[in-house]
Amino acid sequence: MLRNEASCFLTDTERTRILTGLQNGEPLVSRFYAALHKRVYERVVTKGLLGPGATVAWYYPAAEYLSDAAMLYALEPDEGLANWLRTVTLDIARTSAYDWAGPAFRDHLEPLTGHLETAHLCWALSAVYDLARDVFSESEQAEVRQALTEKGIVLCRRWIDKNTHLANWRGILMSGVLVAAAVLNEQELIDQYVSEWQRCALAFQPDGSYGESLQYGNYLAFALMLAYESLSRTYPEKAALLDVGTYGKGIRWVASSMFYAKPLAENGSGSWGTEPRARAANFNDSAALFRPSGDLLLHLAVHAGTDDEKQLARGLFASYYETVPTQGPHELATFGMHNDWGFLTLPLLTHETKGISPQEAGLPLTTAFSNGHTFMRDAWNGKTIVAINGGGEGLHGPGHLHGDLNSFILVHNRERLLVDPGHSCYRNLIHGLESSTQTHNTCTFLVEAETLGLQEDKAKATMLEQKSVLPRRLLINGVPGPAVDRGNRRLIVAHDEPVSVVGSEIGNACGAPIDTFSRFWLMAGSNVLFVIDRIEASQPVTTVWNWLVNNRDGQAQVDTQPTCLTVRRNEAGMKLFHCGNGKIGYPVYGYVHDAYHVEPNQYGEGKPGSGLLYRWTEKAAATARTVVHAIALDEAIVLDRWALTVDGNAFTLSNGQKKWTLIVQDDEAHQLSLVSGHGRRWDVLNESGHYSLKRMPDHG
């Protein structure tokens, strides 16, 4: 079947609806059209791709900047805009294949191979060729086609042919080929890469979550989305072969990962303005500032597999984009993973879908996903969120991992109190450190602690951390191999009235001599969290409990006592009680990053001391221990009312009005009991390796 003459990215019907909406003053279309017009013409006046305030090389925003301009031109042709599009596009088309292969740190051995930047240049030129072809003469059109074919497609295909692992890279390079093939009407290539699209989609977990991180899941889904959209208008029979549901069902994982949106206080690395900015659970290589790409959300609102997935995606777009259409920075919108909306937002807005909230969608408050990400909430839009990287299943697209299993992020009153460090430029020396276990809210183990002297020397001992570099999942004869086991096993995820429990076991991720590292989180209402660790080793080790406090803006007020860490941030507070035999040290000055940037020392990168890393270190090595940490959460002004009392194996947190008691019924933590101030009791039971949460009958 031959393609229609219509654009790959904008049908006549969509164009008419957009222009009619503008004429009628339709608020949403008008708002995003005005924002698109503003950011495009801010670039046009610079007479080049990058303006004077750019912090990135030209590769990184090329796709966004050119596709934005091309869409605006298709809606409202203008001579000045046409000249800008022609000049910038031809400049890229005439750039050498060596530069199309990416920046200097990419492999440039002959024959040249494409990289992520190559795929983005394919997207850039494809959008212009599709939406604004008439800005070029016939000979110039031939130049663009030649650049897409001989530099874009050829280099991207070389990478795909050379590499056999399944992760985001393959999907991005595939999308570079398929989008270019679609706008060039290369039928044979389209058919071949439709099959490659189907393979790349298998990198998602069966439930739609993703094994690398929230941001890389978005990046891969964005690439699949762009390829799908390039086919859906002109090759609908080919688009029908692509299962959007492979990543569309992951909208539940994304929605569960979102925390809130509020202004971000200055941290000395660049102003974020006063607009509300979205925060999310940033496990592995992901940033605290995260919202799914706007075009991707609207794509799912049209094409996802079920009505609730469509409506949930549309609801997230409303929450995180509709009130802030001009929020930047746009220069990192896709490649830099500081996501934004793009050139497909206006066409996709013409397809109406009702938005719903996670609560309206019936998403559970306590839930787990196959990639290990697990969440406990007191309520949707409530006070407390516990986000855990815990037990999971084999990873279908592993990569970009941190040593953060059994780590968690703790949110109260819209403040992140215990945080994940995030990540910054990959070429920073500290990237390996911010990926390591010791900079997350989990345990590390010293195996040579007995000869140490100064406190700061402890970090230089032989430290046992989790393995975070895993084997790749390889394609064998085009078929993905087995999922990669990370060594994390889910023990329990359960919820009953005000009580939630999560348990995970990661001994295999730690390796010898650690046999068992089981961690249980018991959350009671909005104010109480107990963390119980059972750690067993084949030889004595010294356990270190690491707690990373959010001090990204210097506003954390921290007080330490031998067994208590008190943290206040604005209106939120936490008292964390250590109930083991550890000794707390002076804080290590860690890093907490706001957002990833492709270059070092840029906005979003945290400074030393933006994370305060507190450690309790066991006074003596042991082969087995069960240790409780009790955490009280409340408004900062009333935090001092909370106190912990310990009576044998019973640990009680109380503020005089609320009271919860944890009872560790046995040394191995096979039975845990949680008792409210009213005497109601819940038991976590281990029966032949199967854990359950049971509400015990009331007596009396």
From TrEMBL:
<dbReference type="Pfam" id="PF07940">
    <property type="entry name" value="Hepar_II_III_C"/>
</dbReference>
<dbReference type="GO" id="GO:0042597">
    <property type="term" value="C:periplasmic space"/>
</dbReference>
<keyword id="KW-0732">Signal</keyword>
<protein>
    <recommendedName>
        <fullName>Heparinase II/III-like C-terminal domain-containing protein</fullName>
    </recommendedName>
</protein>
<dbReference type="InterPro" id="IPR008929">
    <property type="entry name" value="Chondroitin_lyas"/>
</dbReference>
<dbReference type="GO" id="GO:0016829">
    <property type="term" value="F:lyase activity"/>
</dbReference>
<keyword id="KW-0574">Periplasm</keyword>
<keyword id="KW-0456">Lyase</keyword>
<dbReference type="InterPro" id="IPR012480">
    <property type="entry name" value="Hepar_II_III_C"/>
</dbReference>
<feature type="domain" description="Heparinase II/III-like C-terminal">
    <location>
        <begin position="384"/>
        <end position="584"/>
    </location>
</feature>
